[in-house]
Amino acid sequence: MTSTTIFDQIIRREIPAEIVYEDDLSLAFKDINPAAPVHLLIIPKQPIATVNDIEEDQRELVGHLFVVARKIAAQHGFANDGYRLVMNCNEDGGQSVYHIHLHLLAGKTLGWPPYANDKPKQG
């Protein structure tokens, strides 16, 4: 998938986002529909549609997203309390924007299982 996504537009500053972190490889910004008091999206600037599209030579880039999550958690003071990192893949996995992104959720005690209200797929 090579179509332009909303994340590409955020990277190019064509639409606004509340950016909390940026470096040469990645960008992190607040989710517009937060599922926790802190809900950030950490994205690579290089477009990769889904986890299924990650190539061997992109493993450092994908690993970098987790390093960014650690940095943000430390800078914002919730690293020791804890946080959740989630990356969805494709429609049944909950992916709605086809540009990989790491959800960072924090600011409250997060229950388990994470999506207890999910319903099994029918059919």
What are the main properties of this structure?
123 residues, 2 helices, 5 strands, five-stranded antiparallel beta sheet, Purine nucleoside phosphoramidase, 19% helix, Histidine_triad_HIT, alpha+beta, 20% strand
Structure description:
With 123 residues, the protein is an alpha+beta fold. The protein has a single domain (6-106), classed as HIT family, subunit A (2-Layer Sandwich). It contains 2 helices and 5 strands. The protein has helices at 6-11, 59-75; strands at 19-22, 26-30, 38-44, 84-86, 102-106. Strands 1-2-3-5-4 form a 5-stranded antiparallel beta sheet, covered by helices on one side. The longest helix is centred in the middle third of the chain and has 17 residues, at 59-75.
Low-confidence stretches: none
Major sheet size, sense and barrel closure? 5 strands, antiparallel
Order of H and E elements: HEEEHEE
Helix content: 10-25%
Distance between the termini: 27 Å
CATH topology: HIT family, subunit A
Domain count? 1
Q: Care to count the β-strands? A: 5
Proportion of strand residues:
15-25%
Tell me the structural class. alpha+beta
EC number: 3.9.1.-
Motif (Histidine triad motif): 99-103
Domain HIT: 6-115
Active site: 101 (tele-amp-histidine intermediate)
